[in-house]
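quick one before i forget lol
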Amino acid sequence: MSHFSKPIRFIDQFLSHFQLLFSDTQMNILRQMIYAMFFDYKRLSLSAIAKRTHIDYQKLQYFFSESDWSVDQLNDVRLKILQNQHTTRSTSKGVMAIDDTSVPKPYAEKTEGAQFQYCGALGRQENCNVAVASCFVSNSKHFPVNFKPYIPVNGAPPESFKSKIDLAKDLILDAIDKQIAFSTIVFDAWYTSSELIEFIASKNLSLIAELKINRSIRFTHPQTKQWRNLRADQIIPLIKQFYPHKLKSVNIPQNNGKTKSVLTYAFQSTLKSIDASACLIPAARIPATVSISKAPLMICGITKKLFHPVKCSRFTTRGRGSKESSRRRLGNGFNFKGICQ
């Protein structure tokens, strides 16, 4: 290689798995691209890589935009390599995370898919590329499974248009089709929609997801003992007022080595307009000594049955029967007690 004194054996061994997907010319460019990724760049771009590798920029541009090779086939081989290794394959001790990611393109005028839309990387509207991605995550490993580009449309969408929820469903089916093992699907409040929840329930899968604070939830009022549909921000003050003795303070380890004290209260309920039941936990993202009145709700499991233990590798469930209490453990020291009704 022009930028290495000699080829690196483990890189070439890895790239040999993809040989059948590319012509000799394509494979040569791919190999040089991979080698070039080991260098630091002030701004990673094709022009910067072209200067480092001494490859003609137009050849790199053609390789990614016009050259005849399949991204899906390349990804299939990549996943096969991961699944064939004991140390890297997916297991039922992990979860499937769904989320969208964005790449700012403020000066791009002709980049395919780049449009003015919300950019999560910047936290504002910006010209960017957006994709919905799936990722396997466990305590010991994580790797991307697949991604689907999201292209917004102005005006009435065509029949071929797919929303982020549609793309999320496609990614879930794709992971099942590729036999990616996982225990639970996880995503944030933006994806917690009736459409996606019912889709996951129809596949007999479990989920862990945040719930928007304004979502209507069936809740038995502590005074009247009658159920009604209440917003999450209406339920949390009731829990604080009538069930403070049932709040569980748990410590969650943080990446910086510290722990955060969080208050939790678990109950089984249903969400308005969804034909499924869920185990809900109002969980404060603030120190336990502070009011939980602004805490979000998190769905810890959902099923079309009256009750079903959460199928998450980080949970351990004890107790049988629909009226027994179940004690579960999440992660390192995340304990709460839920009553099955």
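fyi The chain has three domains: 9-65, 89-182, 207-339.
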